[in-house]
Design goal:
The complex is a heterodimer of chains A (276) and B (334).
Chain A lengths: L6 H28 L4 H4 L14 H9 L2 H32 L5 H10 L9 H11 L5 H26 L2 H9 L4 H30 L2 H5 L8 H6 L9 H21 L1 H8 L6
Helix pairs in contact in A: 1-12, 3-12, 4-7, 4-9, 7-9, 8-9, 9-13
Chain B lengths: L3 E10 L2 E11 L4 E5 L6 H9 L6 E6 L2 E2 L10 E4 L11 H11 L4 H14 L15 H13 L5 E5 L7 H18 L2 E5 L3 H7 L2 E6 L2 E6 L1 H6 L4 H6 L6 E4 L1 H4 L5 E4 L4 E4 L5 E10 L3 E7 L7 E6 L9 E6 L5 E3 L8
Parallel strand pairs in B: 3-8, 3-9, 6-7, 7-8
Antiparallel strand pairs in B: 1-2, 1-4, 4-5, 9-10, 11-12, 12-18, 13-17, 14-15, 14-17, 15-16
Helix pairs in contact in B: 2-3, 2-4
The chains are: A mainly alpha (276), B alpha+beta (334).
The structure holds adenosine-5'-triphosphate and magnesium ion (MG).
């Protein structure tokens, strides 16, 4: 789009964008900074920004006190496991809704999305009780399943919008060319949908990684992921801001790094394919 | 071989009948063009033949065998889509080779055929590019290439040239006609472009609301349109249709005279009118002439050099042997 934008407007919008960006990023920056302070500096009033004695002490303490690697592994298992399972179910579901729609397809999609509007606590006790009955409380399997279910509507909706962008005539051309349903999905649909599927996978990993309600309420020790790791530092023993910050930084670092390297895919994912 | 017969083929989408029962015979090697106004069911009919749409009832036979319930791939037909429908993630070579690969042909034969098609269609220099890196005309050639390598028993085209600019359209039109002459394979071609229909077809099928109004060679339709719809639809600019007293003089409800079948004069003639807008094409001039008592202005075709202008009075005499007569139902009178 070639639209003349005045320099003045450009400056205003750039400044505004940076301002809002920094505002959103500030809590994370503050957490990272605090993690390198001593407990005393962390609660200093007025707060100090950069001119303090940087220390790695908090990280040592956190590492000694709790087994970071175990939490990390649980987080990875939950995020990847639920995403993989979700994609397995969502691809055929989205395929059928995008390419063989019926009169009710739109309603089904809306209904699926509407389940995301339900407050999760509403079903906390039923689910807890079911898991206790099944002896699956604090198990990764149960949590993978639950995380998959809560994110499934979003995955299906996203894949649906990506698949919808693929012109039906191309699939018809493949059919004319003698492709079976399997060939069509394998050689035509999937290669064309790879960017969309990749964005969906990334976004879903992040959603699963950050999920805190179910992971906190349904785990104690064995299946506890990094969210529980952070929570264990906002403990009744009194608040240790610096240690809490160190734990938080350690918990968000992997996902932050992953997000950084996959920015382009993620933007596409978060805007549901609106940005090409 | 590519003889296609439709027997009482009917198609409804839900409660809406798009194609009422319809019979059609397409002979081997024929170039058949479907024309008709937008929404009349041309694409639907083509897709029924292709197998991309299921018939609601009736039978489709290809070379004598019942193909009504065969999958598209098993019908041995190739289709070229309006949007080209190339596989964006494959190179030109892979696109053209795709149907052969699906047929399980061996690589040497695939390469031989793809190279052959690329040469015929002047695609050799872009063979390793992706569709996104090609112009519209080049994409269209790739789509045609993908169709010809299979050596199908018939080609189906759905408005293949409508996304191209005028100059390219003329070129591709010739190429497709050329291809038809060389391959002598049945081609079914959907268009709403007059000129494409008239110049390419062996046989034109004029459709209206899913009905076949007339089937015939371009000249048959031009000379003896069966009803006022075909009369108005075939020929460009449209035939002038005149009702009322002037028609009754010829013993008809409606008479039709094509723009090119008038004598024009500044002295005297059968009808006298005033020139409105005139369109100068260089070789021809089209005058829109208002004649008192006629419901619509007449379109008159004159030579390029005629020196008449807006507001001038003009006298028109229709060529007596070229007056088409129609009854009150719009059907042609003998
Ligand atoms: N899948 C469908 N579901 C319902 N109605 C349809 C469907 N496909 C086509 N139709 C209807 O069938 C009629 C014929 O459509 P078709 O596409 O065959 O027209 P066409 O002659 O090819 O028109 P155009 O020249 O605009 O391409 C139209 O009224 C259209 O709305
Ligand atoms: Mg059409």
């Amino acid at each position: 789009m070639a639209r003349a934008v005045t320099t003045q407007r450009k400056i205003v919008f750039t400044a505004l964008a940076w301002g809002i960006g920094l505002m959103i990023f500030f809590p994370i920056l503050w957490t990272i900074l605090t993690s390198f302070k001593t407990e005393a500096t962390a609660i200093a009033d007025p707060p100090v920004f950069f001119n303090f004695d940087w220390t790695l002490e908090n990280y040592q303490v956190v590492q000694e006190r709790s087994d970071y690697m175990r939490y990390l592994w649980n987080s990875v298992a939950l995020a990847l496991g639920s995403t993989f399972l979700g994609i397995l179910i969502a691809v055929p579901a989205a395929w059928s809704m995008a390419f063989v729609p019926t009169r009710r397809t739109k309603n089904v999609l809306l209904w699926m999305l509407s389940t995301k509007m339900l407050p999760a606590v509403g079903v906390l006790y039923p689910i807890r009780l079911i898991l206790i009955q099944l002896g699956l409380l604090d198990s990764k399997i149960a949590l993978i399943f639950i995380l998959m279910l809560i994110n499934l509507p979003i995955i299906i909706w996203m894949l649906y919008t990506y698949f919808r962008e693929i012109p039906g005539e191309i699939l018809e051309a493949a059919r004319m060319d003698g492709a079976t349903l399997k060939d069509e999905i394998l050689y035509v649909l999937t290669p064309m949908a790879i960017p969309g599927i990749a964005s969906t996978v990334l976004l879903n990993i992040i959603l699963a990684w950050n999920e805190a309600f179910w992971t906190l309420t349904l785990t104690t020790v064995n299946a506890a992921p990094l969210t529980a790791f952070i929570a264990s530092y906002s403990s009744p023993e009194g608040l240790f801001y610096a240690k809490l910050s160190a734990a938080s930084t350690m918990a968000i670092a992997p996902i932050l790094i992953m997000g950084w390297f996959s920015q382009k895919q993620l933007v596409r994912g978060l805007t549901f394919g609106a940005v090409k | 071989m590519g003889r296609i017969t439709l027997d009482k083929v009917r198609k409804a989408f839900g409660d809406v009948e798009v194609i009422p029962p319809l019979d059609l015979r397409i002979e081997d090697g024929e170039f058949v063009v479907f024309v008709g106004p937008s929404g009349c069911g041309k694409s639907t009919l083509l897709r029924l033949i292709a197998g991309l749409e299921d018939v609601t009832s009736g039978e489709i036979r290809i070379d004598g065998t019942d193909a009504t319930h065969l999958s598209p791939a098993k019908r041995g037909l190739a289709m070229v889509f309006q949007s080209y429908a190339l596989y964006p993630h494959m190179t030109v070579r892979k696109n053209i080779a795709f149907p052969l690969k699906m047929a399980g042909m061996d690589q040497a034969e695939i390469d031989r055929r793809v190279d052959g098609a690329a040469k015929v269609l002047n695609l050799s220099s872009y063979i390793d590019r992706r569709p996104g890196q090609l112009s519209g005309g080049q994409r269209q050639r790739v789509a045609i290439g993908r169709a010809i390598v299979r050596e199908p028993s018939a080609f189906l085209f759905d408005e293949p040239l409508s996304n191209l600019d005028a100059a390219l359209r003329v070129g591709m039109r010739l190429e497709i006609s050329e291809l038809h002459k060389r391959l002598a394979t049945t081609m079914i071609y959907v268009t709403h472009d007059q000129v494409e229909a008239m110049t390419m077809a062996d046989k034109i099928v004029v459709l209206r609301a899913g009905h076949i109004e007339q089937v015939g060679s371009p000249l048959e339709l031009y000379r003896t349109p069966r009803n006022t719809f075909v009369a108005g639809f075939i020929g460009s600019p449209k035939m002038n249709l005149i009702e009322g007293a002037e028609a009754e003089k010829h013993g008809a409800h409606t008479i039709g005279v094509r723009p090119e079948h008038f004598q024009i004069s500044t002295e005297g003639g059968t009808w006298t009118g005033t020139i409105g807008v005139s369109e100068h094409l260089g070789s021809d001039t089209f005058f829109h002439v208002t004649v008192p008592g006629f419901a619509e202005p007449l379109t008159i075709r004159a030579g390029g050099e005629v020196d008449l202008h807006y507001g001038d009075t003009i006298h028109l005499t229709p060529d007596a042997s070229q007056i088409h007569r129609f009854d009150a139902k719009g059907l042609r009178l003998p």
